[in-house]
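User: Second chain of the day. Same drill as before.
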Amino acid sequence: MLRLMVADLFQRSASLREMRALLALALPMMVAQIAQVATGFVDTVMAGRVGTADLAAVSLGSSILITVTITFAGLLMALNPIIAHHFGAQEHQRIGSSFRQGLWMGLALGMIGLLLTLGLAYTVPDMLGVESQVAEQTKIYLIGAALGVPGFLLFRVFHATSSSLNHTKPIMVVSVLALILNVPLNYFFIHGWFGLPALGGAGCGWATGLVFWFSALVLGGYVAWAAPYRGFKLFQHIEWPDLAQQRNIVHLGAPIALSFFLEVSAFSFVALFVAQLGTVVVASHQVVINVSSLLYMIPQSLGTALSVRVGQAIGAGDYQAARFKSRVGVLAGLLLALFTALLILLGREGIARGYSPDPQVIKLASALLLFAALFQIVDATQTIASGALRGYKITTIPMVIHAVSFWGVGLGMGVWFGLYLPPMASLGLDGPLGAHGFWLALTISLTLAAILLVSYLNHISRQRLHRQRSTTAHQ
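Assistant: Same format as last time:
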């Protein structure tokens, strides 16, 4: 009995140490992510002060830009487990090579993203049939932002490298500086100071483009010159693209990119379907989306940090530690999600009032925030489990799970619940559930994703550990 108590105490102590190590790695990235979200908030506020058309243009333009940048950034997230594995195995020379190959991939994706964003700038606003003033402002916004897309994706290469080497504070500092810089740049481009043309709200796109390059150059300069990175000889020499390494990045990163696209696009389509339900519903839905997006930064940062922790353990050949870190990471995310869910439950009416004084919006948003509370728990669980699986360099099965969950269940069931559900007198339902139906379906879809991903993570971690033990026993 005493032995069991000592073992249990040791396990708890080890769990707390691992949880502290995970949070120490994740917290700076969390601040960085919040700073990036705050940049979008600043753009919205500053454009809204100019006029309604300016605000609409920034809203439409940023939605298009985010879809492109997040999808391509997902592909570059393959660098996290790749470099983390090298770091765990103490293969420092391979870290430098993978980093340089990542730069080539980031540059190539940046040019593709630039051209794609420009193409969307000249097609999407007209296809949607928005007012001519909004369409023109959106084009100007996206042209300026497009020029910064290569900078953003190069920044993501430096981000992945620095975080995989356990240095996340520089990412936080650069992101906060970028947020601060965004405010005067917005003002200069919106109002045309220092000889610049007054672009109105569309000027936020040009400010965003410059901020992207600022982030890339400052973080890149720090990685190039700071002492903690010198031993890895990241910039030792020019290395031309290596086809095998580039294929490895694409093989690992493409499913991540598609998973991100599926999630972002599913929520975008829900917003389009909700738009036909009236202004109050749209406003209430936007409140919940905004709150959920901000809180999502917590599990997203934990997931990225966990992919690094797990990847380093696997690189060191320690599958017992990898399984342990995965379980602690999921538990840490669940505890934080329970805390944020409780905050939403207790403060949902106050949150809604903070967004709108309209009593109808407050009432509906408060009701929808009940779904958001449960949403936080399952979304955090599936996001962090995905991060752990990336640490194992497993991305294809999570992509399939996300496709089935987000599009098959979340979007398909949401349309049926929200718009086409027939009356069911036995259940007290007199027809479609509107916005409640969409949020119910999203919650169900994320619950399904969480169950499947955690189960798969448990299976993979146990399988890899068993395989390692079998190999060791036969040696």
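The chain is about 85% helix and 0% strand.

User: Great, on to the next one.
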